[in-house]
Design brief:
By secondary structure, this protein is of the alpha+beta class. It is about 20% helix and about 35% strand. Strands 5, 8, 9, 10, 11, 13, 16 and 18 form an 8-stranded antiparallel β-sheet that branches. It has a 6-stranded antiparallel β-sheet with strand order 7-6-12-17-14-15, with no helix packed on it.
Length: about 325
């Protein structure tokens, strides 16, 4: 057989296989479509699960969805009264005494692995598992809840000069790529254009976290937050990060936060690009059982795109 005849025979064989493969691929796609559509939990299952969780979950309990990609579906089905901002943009999972895990397809959250399973209820394709936090320690006060003129003072400090930041109603800032987190209309506005507000920052894994948005102003200036009349326990615990897009390339200046009570400096912690949502803790045993103003100073040698956000609690 000549070379041309070989090529012709190979071409005919390839066409036969191609025509056979096309229907086979179609059948596989049809089968996958059937599996996917039949594995989707209907709205009625989600709503039955929601009714159960709404009736049993206390305000301090966590409601979470598994797997992670199902979270948008869970938020839509459960609504903001159950899938609250505090639950969805939580600082960490250990703050909650109990968790209602709403899951599909047998998924579970890895963070709940060491918790005690208390109950499991099935609502068609949706399962609600109740977990108890074995090591739960109550939170005394959440400093994120202090961001208003009744509970906090904000100022910009430069050298020996301290300028007050007024609490104002401004236009909301939508945030976004290159602009940092969104800011609500009610916030502290500081001289020089900086400000302080509650917000939600996405960490390096794009998990949202509710926090106090305090962009560092750079140079020799700092932003000072004074939390008024805070009930104290044995520690101040918190987390801090920068807006994901601002720290992912690891090119920005570090940001330092320093806590003090009266004349006592509790300590400082530095956030460097790439750290992500990192925890910190300061000992306040000397002040346990008292109430006092807690001061936090945020400073950085550079102010460019230092979209810093932190949260803290007393325990």
């Amino acid at each position: 057989m000549s070379g041309d005849e070989h090529k012709s025979a190979a071409a005919k064989a390839w066409h036969r296989y191609a025509f056979a493969a096309i229907p086979a691929a179609g059948l596989l796609e049809l089968g996958a479509h059937v599996v996917q559509t039949h594995s989707v939990a209907p709205d009625s299952d989600w709503q039955a699960a929601r009714a159960f969780v709404a009736a049993h979950a206390a305000p301090e309990d966590l409601v979470a969805f598994a797997p992670r990609w199902a979270d948008p579906v869970g938020r839509e089905q459960f609504g903001p009264s159950v899938a609250t901002l505090e639950r969805e943009a939580r600082a960490d999972i250990e703050r909650f005494p109990r968790a209602y895990e709403v899951s599909i397809r047998g998924a579970h959250l890895a963070d709940l692995h060491d918790w005690a399973r208390e109950d499991e209820q099935r609502f068609g394709g949706v399962t609600v598992t109740t977990w108890r936090n074995r090591g739960w320690v109550p939170v005394i006060d959440d400093l994120v809840s202090h961001v208003d003129p009744q509970h906090m003072r904000v100022s910009r400090v430069q050298g020996d000069h301290e300028s007050d930041c007024s609490f104002s109603r401004l236009s909301p800032a939508s945030g976004g790529l290159g602009s940092g987190p969104a800011m609500p209309p009610d916030r502290f506005a500081c001289p020089g254009g900086s400000g302080v507000s509650t917000s939600v920052v996405a960490d390096l894994d794009y998990y949202p976290h509710r926090c106090i948005y305090t962009p560092a102003v750079g140079s020799d200036a700092s932003v000072r937050l004074r939390f008024l009349d805070v009930p104290l326990g044995h520690s101040i615990q918190g987390h801090h990060a920068l807006y994901v897009e601002a720290e992912r390339k690891k090119q920005g200046a570090p940001v330092t936060i320093t806590f003090r009570i009266g004349d006592t400096t509790l300590g400082s912690v530095v956030h460097r690009d790439g750290d992500g949502w990192r925890p910190f803790e300061f000992d306040t045993s000397a002040f346990a059982g008292q109430r006092a103003d807690v001061v936090a100073d945020i400073a950085s040698p550079g102010g460019q795109r230092r979209y810093y956000c932190f949260e803290a609690i007393t325990r």
